[in-house]
Amino acid sequence: MNAQLSRLQIAARIHFFLKREVGTGIDVETMLKRASYAGEVLAMCDTAKGTELERLAHQFRLATAAAERPASSRVAQPWSDTSGFGLSRPLELHDQPPSPRRRSSPPSAT
Questions:
Q1: Neighbours of 12 (CB within 10 A)
Q2: Digit-coded pLDDT (tens) for 17-66
Q3: Which of 96, 1, 5 has its CA nearest to residue 59?
Q4: CB 19 within 8 A of CB 25
Q5: Full-model pTM
Q6: Among positive and negative, which fits the CA dihedral 31, 32, 33, 34?
Q7: Alpha-helical segments (H) within 1-92
């Protein structure tokens, strides 16, 4: 099992846990979009001390904090200013003007 669950997976687990134990679930989509709704759901989960709900609330907070953090692993790559298909010439030739193209003679009409 993946140790790092996504916010969606955690919210879905909270929903199904509540549906099973209480008979009513939460609106998962609203929990992912509105911080105020998520805060209310998590506060309710925190009241269930020592249960899976409390653990899921903690995991959701960690996943939310991780999602809001800027990705520090993003490093500018030499090709990052291209279209995504990579450099059209080797990097060492990138600053040099392209060599002139040879025109081939047009096909002769027979």
A1: 18
A2: 999 988 999 999 999 999 999 999 999 999 999 999 999 999 999 999 88
A3: 5
A4: yes
A5: 0.60
A6: positive
A7: 7-21, 28-33, 35-46, 52-68
